[in-house]
Amino acid sequence: MSFKREDYINWDEYFMGIAILSGMRSKDPNTQVGACIVSQDNKILSMGYNGFPRGCSDDEFPWNRDGDPLDNKYFYTTHSELNAILNYRGGSLEGSKLYVSLFPCNECAKAIIQSGITEVIYDSDKYENTPSVIASKRMLSASGIKFRKYEHSGRKIEIEL
Prior knowledge:
This protein is α/β, with parallel strands linked by helices and about 160 residues long. The protein is built from four helices and five strands. α3 (about 105-115) runs parallel beside α4.
């Protein structure tokens, strides 16, 4: 009699891995964030990463972080969470979970709330003391959306492409 293997990755490792891998698609030289939206029965519904909207060339729009607001990236980029929400073509996201490599900002929190996502699993919270993330956590909590930090398993996975 044969037995199933025991070293398979769990759901959190799988979906956070997809989010991190999605972030690797970002052309932003400083910040690569990925997101993965998952149904209640653990099916991937959508993915996204931070970048410019369709039709806005990543060779022509600025990647700078400072200077004149019209000459830096902040007015032009779409965050991974919003991209994942907007990329979904299947109807409602009601009751789904969002895996994201960086805790959502206040603007993404609004989209998460309005889309019906009920749980956020995040990796990094490096901006936790900023007004944007403090406001995000206030809104998510007020809306009854659970959020929790991804617990690293310490597992290293190598993929050769």
